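Reviewer has doubts. Consider these tokens.
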Amino acid sequence: MDENLKKIIPFLKPYKTNVIWNIIFNILYALFSTLSFIALIPMLDVLFKDAEKVVAKPKFTSIWEITSFGKDYLYFYITKLTEENGAQYALLLVVCIVIITFLLKNLFNYLALNHLLLLKNGVLRDLRNKMFDKIIDLPVSYYSEKRKGDVMARMLNDVNEVKNSFFSILELVVKEPMTILFTIGAMVAISFKLTLFVFIFIPISGFIISKIGKSLKAKSKKAQDENGYLISIVEETLGGLKVVKSYNAERTFTAKFNDSIQRLYRITNSIGKKNNLSSPLSEFMGILVIAILLWYGGNMVLVDKLADGTPLLEGSKFLAYMGLAYNILTPAKAISKASYQVKTGLAAAERVFDVLEVENTITDQSNAIQKSSFDDSISIENISFKYEDEIVLKNFSLQIPKGKTVALVGQSGSGKSTIANLLTRFYDVNEGSIKIDNTDIKDLSMNSLRSLMGLVTQDSILFNDTIKNNILLGKQNATDEEIIAALKVANAYEFVKDLPNGIDTNIGDSGGKLSGGQKQRLSIARAVLKNPPIMILDEATSALDTESEKFVQIALENMMQNRTSIVIAHRLSTIQKADVIVVMQKGEIVEQGTHEELLAKNGMYSKLVMMQSFE
């Protein structure tokens, strides 16, 4: 059994009732599909005045003879109706039987499809939920290596492909094989000799079709990978549209997109050609067999005679037999088509499980501590960290007492922002430890660790929603009064109150309707509303102009009162009031002290201040 097939099975368990009913209704569909053709025999017998005369009412003797009992009982009524009311009444009876069998066949098909629909949509929903839980749960580091567009494609397109293609397997193992089985059973009962031809045809046809479909799974995976890349290009282009336009780079991105579309066009054409070949090929091979059956069976009806002069095969039985033989073609075609679809579904399932099975390296321990308060200090002890092979921090130690503001300064690449990533456990240290109140943060539950911290980053990450809903992320059950109070602390209420709908104003995609300074003040308001004891400010003012910076700086100072703050700063003017300034270079501390102490040392900090004063 294919590995991905085994992985899908747990998702079927909640829908086992639907699976069972689908199988039952498919078996009944297959049975009545066969009976609908067998019912043609008595109708043709009545038409051609060939009906077997049964005068005595048959008696039921045992379950093993139910077929001959049913046949005798039907012919008894046909004989009785013909003698009492004329042949047209007998014809009406058999026509009604034909209609009922076809009606039941289609009713069972409808019920089977309904249960399959509930199964497919249920598994689609569960897989998407599982995928979203996983992509939310995975560490930030995963997305620095993967294309976000490809992850989106796996969640949306590939999961859908699993739904549309993969569940053809139920038809592959139940509906169509059972139809073939019942049909062949009926054909053997009518004429064993003729049925031998069908037995020769099925394996030959299956072999040829499987040869064509062999490379389909690999090609389907290729197409799905390319689709993921295509969505990535669209996502990146839209995300950086200002840069694309300002650098006149439209042609570059269009060429990139066109190349991907062209590759996808070639792969999907190749897959489509093989898919399209399956149906006509199986039908043509079926017609070849039908032609042989017509010749051979026709001779049995017209030429070959038994000892008493009657034909070797009755005309009515031969016509019904031909109907049954053609009835095999439809499921044979469906099986070849479904086997192709399953290959596409398996390729999509592989891409889905690639994400679902990624091991999350940053998780809670089984006995994780729930911590609700910050009482003493943050202690960073001899930590070392590297992104893949690049060492960013080495033997870094720092003590941050409660209520103090510690600023981290240094040139780009000195490891300042990495400290913020490690404190919030977006990444884990390679060596050493980070402790809060003498407890290693790896021993704390992630939820309680992050509840103690508020993070304001250089890029104001806002969502396409109202100001109110963006700020409520800090505290889901906050009142409007609390939101307005937080906006005031963040120095943001003065512009929010003038907006058309106040805090209910939609700010557009990524807050595109606001200025940089306004967006940053909303980010600060969100952190203020959360009201955590530890605040991490990662270059919160570096992307702002001077006037916006003043507003944001006031907001930051308001927020940092009576709090433990770690300020990662590029602009040194913003951290002169810090209790301790830590100067970093290449992942190590080179100086630390207050603003005045460091200036007096006339070392690296002094040089940085000098350089910025001339900017």
Remarks:
- The chain has two domains: 3-356, 377-613.
- The CA atoms of residues 125 and 572 lie 51 Å apart.
- Residues 377-613 form a domain with the Rossmann fold fold (CATH 3.40.50.300).
